[in-house]
């Protein structure tokens, strides 16, 4: 409570931008203000990626201002405030969630495959059954013709009806679709966003999926984390740092400790600061 009171008093006396260092504007809004989205400063806000999808994160409660982002990039404290580490940590959580969904999708498809194909027929056995059905169908057609010539129309129609049933059974074995019915499509799980899609689907539908918000959103998250990890790895090897793990791989405790150190180094001694 005492710290909050001190902070409020200094806000009133010196303004919210009292921590601005020499060379930075101290009037008006500042990129370090609490109501500015720090994720947006780092590159993009995840709340904007999945609008009106089943993974919609809702509207971001903080402001997005391109001028603030440019000011942050030009600031001497760019990449020293711990914003990027917080951003990577949040993106990693989103990626872990979609990876779980991808695993569940594969498990679901495996279960459905077992249910739909409990005892698959071997190729040779299937071929023999198809040949037997074909012979039976030909015999029935010949029998129906003979009955028709003898004037036994009702019996001929009954034989032809049986013939149609055998033809359908044969078409099922051959993998053909029944006339008037849609053949079951094989599904697969998208390894980027976890959505189900038809395997070997039409190019137009594939393009629609690849250009969808969910797919593009998770692809953007993966690209950012990959680039950040590569940059962090290069930086670690260049300066001989012992901890070569990327922020994506490090534990939350390690990330929190690094953020505190980064924030401590970023504070200019000439600036008046208030403990948070």
TrEMBL record:
Note whether Coiled coil occurs among the keywords: yes
Q: Where is the composition biased (Polar residues)?
A: 229-238
Q: Where is this region: Disordered?
A: 229-276
Annotated GO biological processes are: mRNA splice site recognition
Coiled coil spans: 123-150
> Per its record, what are the GO molecular function terms?
mRNA binding
Q: Per its UniProt entry, which superkingdom is the organism in?
A: Eukaryota
Q: Coiled coil among the record's keywords? A: yes
Q: Where is the composition biased (Basic and acidic residues)?
A: 245-259
Keywords annotated in UniProt: Coiled coil
Q: Name one GO cellular component term.
A: U1 snRNP
Q: Which family does it belong to?
A: Belongs to the Luc7 family.
Q: What is this protein called?
A: Luc7-like protein isoform 1
Q: What species is given as this protein's source?
A: Schistosoma japonicum (Blood fluke)
């Amino acid at each position: 409570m005492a710290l909050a009171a001190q902070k409020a008093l200094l806000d009133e006396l010196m303004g919210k931008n009292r921590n601005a260092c020499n060379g930075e504007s101290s009037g008006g809004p500042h990129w370090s203000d609490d109501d500015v989205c720090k994720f947006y400063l780092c590159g993009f806000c995840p709340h904007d990626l999945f609008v009106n999808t089943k993974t919609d994160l809702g509207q971001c409660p903080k402001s997005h201002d391109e001028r603030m982002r440019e000011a942050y990039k030009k600031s001497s404290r760019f990449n020293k405030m711990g914003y990027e580490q917080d951003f990577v940590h949040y993106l990693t959580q989103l990626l872990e969630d979609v990876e779980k969904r991808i695993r569940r999708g594969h498990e679901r498809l495996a279960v459905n495959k077992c249910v739909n194909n409990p005892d698959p027929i071997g190729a040779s056995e299937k071929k023999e059954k198809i040949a037997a059905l074909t012979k039976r169908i030909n015999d029935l057609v010949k029998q129906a013709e003979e009955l028709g010539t003898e004037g036994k129309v009702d019996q001929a129609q009954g034989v032809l009806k049986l013939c149609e049933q055998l033809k359908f059974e044969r078409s099922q074995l051959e993998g053909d679709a029944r006339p008037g019915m849609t053949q079951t499509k094989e599904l697969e799980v998208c390894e980027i966003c976890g959505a189900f899609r038809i395997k070997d689907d039409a190019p137009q539908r594939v393009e629609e999926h690849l250009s969808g918000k969910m797919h593009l959103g998770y692809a953007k998250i993966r690209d950012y984390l990959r680039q950040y990890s590569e940059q962090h790895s290069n930086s670690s090897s260049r300066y001989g740092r012992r901890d070569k793990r990327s922020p994506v791989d490090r534990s939350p405790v390690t990330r929190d400790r690094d953020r505190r150190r980064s924030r401590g180094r970023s504070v200019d001694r000439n600036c008046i600061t208030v403990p948070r």
